[in-house]
Design a protein that fits this description.
alpha/beta, Helicase, Ruva Protein, domain 3, Phosphatidylinositol Transfer Protein Sec14p, 2 domains, five-stranded mixed β-sheet, 49% helix, globular
Length: 295
């Protein structure tokens, strides 16, 4: 559907609108993009790739082509098959994975963006891999990024009544040590690469809290893996972070572990709850499915 449009996005300049039209036309003409592709065929999807390559249509086309190839070939199955096999919001041993590396979506901020929270002080990959294979753990990481595009951002947009195209990430470094960083360094680098290459422009802001003194050294390594545009979205705070967080997030949407009042009682706690518009929509769909009556 070569003329597909989308929900409202920020107004484009004349040259940007022309770039978008050319980009769309060439993607269809060269069969890089087809109707029904799960990457998305709407303007907002295409704009993410154009912005990531500073509106250079040729570079954007190379980027989305590489993304399409990855989506079709990842793990020899492709992203669509993997997403059907493993629900990133409800997979076996998810509680164990989050015991040693919690990475979860929880509510939305004051602008309607989904909030991703990661507590890195509990990182213990050797212990995790006694229960879960490294391959399964890695799959859960990139399928969480896929879930952001498939379910979380669309649900947040519908809840807000306007387009939400990125999220707010909080990285909690309470108790985090340099030795833990060395454990996870390669995975962090790999995760950032996947995010920047295949899910561009989906992080609106990243707030690091409880940053230890060693983080200056760690950040010096990590920021070399990031595009400057991503670096510019990072805010680093110490342990007096609550006032700053509450400028972004309502207190009842923030987990109690971070100074808010939310505990997600009856939902397994904030880490496992999946609470947010995306969970509301899943429940609504489940409620409308008629049970199968066996004769």
């Amino acid at each position: 559907m070569e003329n597909a449009t989308t929900t409202s996005s920020p107004a484009l300049t004349e040259s940007q609108a022309e770039a978008l039209q050319r980009f769309r036309s060439e993607l269809w003409a060269e069969k890089i993009l087809r109707d029904g592709d799960s990457i998305g065929t709407d303007d907002d999807t295409l704009l993410r790739f154009l912005r990531a390559r500073k509106w250079n249509v040729t570079a954007s086309k190379e980027m989305i082509s590489a993304c399409q190839l990855w989506r079709k070939s990842v793990e020899g199955k492709g992203i669509d098959a993997l997403y059907r096999e493993m629900d990133p919001f409800d997979f076996p041993q998810r509680d164990i994975v989050f015991t040693y590396w919690s990475m979860y979506y929880h509510n939305v901020d004051k602008t309607g963006r989904p909030i991703n929270i990661q507590h890195l002080g509990s990182i213990n990959l050797p212990a995790l891999y006694e229960h879960v294979t490294p391959e399964k753990h890695w799959r859960s990481i990139f399928l969480t990024a896929e879930g952001l595009m498939r379910e979380i951002l669309p649900a947040a947009s519908r809840k807000a009544g306007r387009h939400i195209n990125n999220g707010l990430c909080i990285v909690d470094l309470k108790g985090f040590t340099l030795s833990q960083f060395w454990q996870m360094r390669d995975l962090v680098k790999k995760s950032f690469q996947v995010s920047q290459d295949y899910y561009p422009e989906t992080m609106g802001k990243l707030i690091v809290i409880n940053a230890p003194t060693s983080f200056t050294y760690i950040w010096g390594i990590v920021k070399r893996w990031l595009a400057q545009e991503t670096v510019n979205k990072v805010e680093i705070l110490g342990n007096a972070y609550l006032e700053d967080l509450l400028k972004e997030i309502d207190v009842d949407a923030l987990p109690a572990s971070l100074g808010g009042t939310c505990e997600c009682k009856g939902l397994g706690g904030c880490v496992l709850s999946n609470v947010g518009p995306w969970l509301d929509e899943r429940r609504s769909r489940e409620a409308t499915v008629e049970p199968v009556v066996k004769e």
